[in-house]
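Appendix B.2, paired examples.
Example (i):
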Amino acid sequence: MIVPTRDRPAALRCCLEALSAQTVVDAIEVIVADDGSLAADEISNVVASHPRARLIRLGGYGPAAARNAGVQHAQGGILCFTDDDCEPLPQWAERLREAIERGADAAAGITVSSGSALAEASEIVARAPVHARERDSRGLPFAPSNNLAGTRALFESIRFDEAYPTAAGEDRDWCARVTAGGYTIRLEPDARVVHHQELTLGRFMRQQFRYGQGAYRFRRGSGERRPLEAPGFYAALLRRAFDESFSVGLLVSAAQPATALGCAVAWLRRPRDDRSLTAHAVGSRYSRGDGE
């Protein structure tokens, strides 16, 4: 199990308690990747209270870097990812492992919100890329990284792109490269996670702004120009939100301008970002050994 964390010791404690209650707890190790927490001592104390958890430290490079570091330190052949504000239910790891053992390259479960309208709106937006294209026999087009598993070989060959500085778009980019490479991401509906987001309206809108920045990076920063979704995609997103409740529908509607603003800001900053992304892409090519 790999759990990125930063300055959320109370949430991390709940997450580790849930991992300690897994049905296959005797077969798991937990790598907590602390990405530059100011509350470093509190994080250390939380991890020390769970004998199966091991702490690694990073310098605040973002969740993509934290996941990659976790892969490097993990020892198992099947790796599971969740986030520090998530509570995997007891059969989560067992069900994901079974999906991989049945032949999937990667597997993803179902993530549900903790119940508030803000949390539900956030989950609906986060799951939206699942509907970006029709699911086929090859599996899912997208899976959020807070409920994801795969073979060690897959995560070593296709790393999370560390050019993404925040939790916004890096999992979508990873999934796009996985599926483009011919690998499968299978849905395992019995692998369930409860996502305990502590959101205010302001935090929710800032989250959507970051999603917009991540969306721009996803579509323009990879060197491959990925097109925008069709209008029907956004109409279906709003229908799903209003089907949940009127308040959730209003929140998802309000999220769209914030996402568009984040995308526009990223576009305005593109000369600087494009230079850093190009340098990152070149460096990644040579680190993989596929440069000229």
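Example (ii):
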Amino acid sequence: MSNAERISTPGKADDAEITLGILNAVHQNERITQRSVAQELGIALGLANAYLKRCAKKGLIKVSQAPANRYAYYLTPQGFAEKSRLTAEYLSDSFRFFRSARSQCTEALHVASQRGWTRIALYGTGELAEVASLCEASGARIVAIVDPDYRPASFAQFPVVGSIAEAGEIDALLLTTLADPQTAYDRLIETYPAQRILVPSLLRISEAAS
């Protein structure tokens, strides 16, 4: 099957990924256009239009008229729930997850090193934290894992503490929770500088909406 055919007739996996991309784009920017969505997701303009209409029909997004013949798109509560479900589903593909996670966590540690941040704490135990624990970058090292809901004192050979304060002297956080990462990020930035939170893109965090 050619690439053009694949784009025009998405399979089940592509369908879920495109829908997630649509919901994430709307969450980040209510003033998106069909063209900007198509460019961001790498799909045909007609397909972007079809998916936006489908999401609206399913009650995942709400569309309202904006000035200059444009439209504003909003995620509904049902849309937020579906975005969380699809994110978890997307991350469940173990091979794709490990490959993306290792690449992105390594890159995050390199960014920390370039900024002079040497002591990094992971935020959240689980599969992503386990992958992150295997990553290395010259000048930056993981010193602890923060997880308020994890009871054992260690995970992946790192000490686990219940709060950022208990992590001691750290320079930045690497978000590694898979349990509703958007909510975790939104809560974190209430008490910790957003610019010092490193977020793997696979978590699909919408920073502008926080």
